[in-house]
Structure formats: C-alpha cells, structure tokens
Hints:
This protein is α/β, with parallel strands linked by helices. It has a single domain, classed as Transcription Regulator spoIIAA. The protein has 4 helices and 5 strands; from the N terminus they run E-E-H-E-H-E-H-E-H. Strand 2 (11-17), helix 1 and strand 3 (42-49) form a beta-alpha-beta unit. Helix 1 (25-37) runs parallel beside helix 2 (55-70). The chain starts with a strand and ends with a helix. The model has no long low-confidence stretch (mean pLDDT 94).
Amino acid sequence: MNINTEKKNEVIICHIDGDININTSPQLRKAFEEFVEKDMKKIIVDFSSVSYIDSSGLATFIELLQRLKKSGGSFRICSMNQKVKNIFEVTKLHKIFEIFDTQSSAENNF
C-alpha cells in the first residue's frame, strides 16, 4: 500500500493505493497520527485505488475519526468502489462516516 498526500488550502487529501488490511493498517495509522500531531483538522481520504478493506482497516478509520472529533477536526472519505462501499454498509459504518462520491464533493462539504 502507498499513501500519497497533498494539501489544498487547509485540507489534507490522502490518496491510498492498495488494500487496507492487517498488514498495512499500521502504516496507515502512523500517517494519521502525524496528521493529528500536526493539528491538521480537515482530512479527506481518497479510496479510488483501494479495492479491499478488512476489520483492522475499519478500526484504524474509526480511531482517526474519534481522535479528530476530540480535537475539533473532521474527516471525509471519497471515491469508494462498490465493493468497498458494501463493506461500510454491511458494518453500518456508512452511518458514522461522511462518504462522498468524488473528491471535489468532499472538499466542498467542509
């Protein structure tokens, strides 16, 4: 898995390329910890190149959401394929995360 970030105004856009699973979740958690430590409060995670996420990946995103909310930040997810979207729906996590079809729609909703 590769993580590439870009900053647009005050928004960090995190592009993930590859599966999010028990092996890659620690790398993702470390990247997110750096965002929180640097007091970055607006984060978008682009799932356009993610084909699979497991429970450890979901747990990592739940942790990020909780940490950001405590510090007054917010978090958006965008560009999920249907397979990944189904995982969020089956686990009911689509009700707690703000999920958008496109990166631009996620950016416009901060």
